[in-house]
Amino acid sequence: CVMIGAAAALRRNELITIDAVYRLLPSRGRVALDTLVFCLVLATLVLLLYHGVTFVAKHARDITPLLKLPKALFDAAAPAGAALMLVRLFQWYAGQLRAHRAAERG
User: Fold this and answer.
1) What is d(CA 89, CA 80) in angstroms, rounded to the nearest whole number?
2) For 47, what's the count of Cα atoms within 13 Å in the CB-facing half-sphere?
3) pTM reported for the whole predicted model
4) 104 contacts: CB under 8 Å, gap ≥ 6
5) Which of 34, 88, 91, 94 could lock 10 by a disulfide, CB 3.0 to 4.6 Å apart?
6) How many CB atoms are closer than 10 A to CB 26?
7) Cβ pair 69, 63 in contact under 8 A
8) What is the pLDDT along the chain (106 residues), one digit of tens a residue?
9) What is the DSSP letter of 66?
10) From CA 93, how far away is CA 34, in angstroms rounded?
C-alpha cells in the first residue's frame, strides 16, 4: 500500500525534496540535475518492478493460513506501485522539461 501511496504523492508533487542547492543552480544545471534524478529513480523503479514481479511469481501458489487467499494478492502491491510510479515519473520529467523550456523563453 505504501508504494501505491507513493505513486499518488509523486503525481501531486508532494514527495519530500531538498531543493536548496537546486534553487541556486542555473537553468542548465537544473535540467542536468532533473535528468540525473530521473535516471536514478528510473533505474530503482525498474529494479523494484522486476524483482517484485519475480517474487510474486515465485510465491504465487502460497496461500495465507487464515484467509486462504493467495499471498500474491498482497505481495503484488510493490510491483504495482513501482509500475504506477514509473508512469508518474515520466509525467514528472516531461513537466520539468516543459517548465525549463518555458522559463528559457521568458
Assistant:
1) 14
2) 6
3) 0.81
4) 27
5) 88
6) 8
7) yes
8) 666 677 777 777 777 777 788 889 998 999 999 999 999 999 999 999 999 999 999 998 999 999 999 999 999 999 999 999 999 999 999 999 999 999 888 7
9) T
10) 7
